[in-house]
Amino acid sequence: MGTVRQKAHRSAPRLIVGTVLTALLTLTTAGAALGRAPSTDGASVAARTDAYIRDVAGDVGLEPHSLNPIWQSPDIKVCPTAIECATSQNPIVGVTNYVFVKLNNPGPYGSGVSTGTVELYRTTPGGGASWPIHWTSIGSVATSAFPGVTTVTIPWNGVPGPGHFCLLARWVSPTDPMTSEGPSHSTNTRNNNNIAWRNVDSVNPAPGTPEVRPFAIGNETEVPTRNDLVFAQRGEPFQNAGGRIVADLGPVLFQRWVQAGRPGVGIREVGRNQVEIVAANAKISDLLLNPGERPEFNLIFSTQTVSSRQFVVDVIQFGPAKAGGEKTDVGGVQYLVRTAQRG
After folding, report:
1. Do 240 and 310 have their domain in common?
2. Which domain holds residue 290?
3. How far apart are CA 193 and CA 50, in angstroms?
4. Looking at the record's lineage, which domain of life comes first (predicted)?
């Protein structure tokens, strides 16, 4: 079973938006099922509560918000033991890891103790993951979120290979309902302070020994869409230290890119189905995706030198979150790259 740790603290007064009474709300078996909101056909009336999971460090629970990126939640952390670690780590394949999720109470839409369940899911790293079809349950813990910060620990048993995932946490409570949930996970996250998302991966290539990471891009709409892959590096580019980043798109995605006219900036073709990222800010443009598709490809990180510096590479999918919409951030992964000595 998971465990819960509570840390009460004094904080500056938060904005309280009225006192809202909800209609009859009960958490039924159907309401707790994957992808369903709590039932509203119950027989009890409760005051509106509001516990939230932060999307970014400055998130105070407002719905919706314009903060970015929404896929680097500081309130989701992976650790190798049941003792919370200082910084989130890559899960270790084949053994039990532990995911720590923090609930902040109160948010701007309610007050008081909030009782419910923290649900945890995983999917292939990347963007465009439709809810709920692309997500697999890791586990859940029933708890109460008291004023302050409540930390919930969820065991992650038998982590499957290759050990690189996007993680999704959901707070499901009869007195703290979701605003709305549709197939667009990025829209759900931005519009519900009950939902948070973490996609951060450590990469440690040794000279002459590349590291490969899976990446998926998806179409959450019901019509074909064209999507961009953006490669944004903060600080000194990995390439300046002798590093290389190559996107092996595979035959299908590569051919679609060729048919679109090979659009993009800061890139070059380097091999069969492969595109190298040669600039600090680069883009592979107009990748066609059919409705519901979420193909995977590989990102290859390599180096010929050893450096003590850490390089930050954000790989982001920009695509329509709804039919006919403009391209926006629909998910990505932050790669923390540090070269290692040859083993």
Report:
1. yes
2. 202-337
3. 9
4. Bacteria
Whichever domain contains 221, its CATH number is 2.60.40
Beta bridge partners of 111: none
CA separation for the pair 203, 210 (Å, rounded): 10
Residues 230 and 216 in one domain: yes
* pLDDT digit string, tens, across residues 83-94: 999 999 999 999
What CATH number did the domain enclosing 144 receive? 2.70.50
Nearest to 299 by CA among 212, 203, 204, 202: 212
CA pair distance 86, 147, nearest whole angstrom: 23
Q: Quick: pLDDT tens for 222-253.
A: 999 999 999 999 889 999 999 999 999 999 99
| Pair of tokens at residue 336 | 């923390």
Q: Are residues 253 and 320 in the same domain?
A: yes
Q: Look up residue 250 and give its two tokens.
A: 């595979």
Is the peptide bond between 183 and the residue preceding it cis, with omega within 30 degrees of 0? no
Indicate whether 259 and 145 sit together in one domain.
no
CA distance 120 to 101: 9
User: Quick one: tokens of 321?
Assistant: 């979150």
